[in-house]
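Researcher: Good morning. I'm working through a list of sequences from a screen, and I'd like to move beyond sequence-only analysis. For each chain I'm collecting a predicted structure so we can compare shapes side by side. This is the next one on the list. No need for commentary yet; just the structure.
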Amino acid sequence: MQRITLLPVPPKILPRPMLPPPVALICVQPVLNRIVRNLTRALPELFARLGPHRYSRFLIDARELPFLLLLRPDPDRPRLTAVSRKAEPPCDARIGGRFRDLLGLIEGERDGDALFFSRDLDITGNLEAVVCLRNAVDDVEGAVADRVTASLGPVSRAAWGMFRRRHGRSDMESGKP
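Model: Good morning. C-alpha cells for this chain:
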C-alpha cells in the first residue's frame, strides 16, 4: 500500500487585481477638475476666508450619489475628487445629507443650522473647519453653483437647470422636505 502525504496548501499571496473604478467616477472627475479650476480663478477670496482650514480635507456625502466627494481647498492645489463609497479616504471633517439639502446649502436656499439640528445634516470631525467652509460659501455674492455652471458654458447651464428642477430647486422653493 502506498502512503500519501498531504502537504499544506500555502495561502494565496497574490495581490488582488485592481478593479477599474466605477464608470461614475471616471465620468465625473474631469468635470470636477474644471469646476475647481474655474472656482479658484473666479473666487480666490474663498481660500482666505477658510483661514487655517484651507488645507483641511472635507468629505462630502450626498447620500443619493453613487460616490463621495473629497474637497481639499488648498489655494496652491485645490482638489475636488470623486471617491468610491467602498474606499472612504481619511478626512478632517465629514458632511453628509440628502443631495437636495447639500445643494440648497451651496445655493444659499437652505439653513445649515436648521438642517444640522433637525439631524438632516450629519457633521463629524472638525466642526470649526465646517463652519469656516460654510461662512466662506455664504460670503460669495450669488450662488456658488450658478457661478460654476456659468463658467462651464451654455450646455452646462441648460443641464444644470434641468438637474436643479429634478433634484432640488422645485422642492426647495415649495418647502417640501
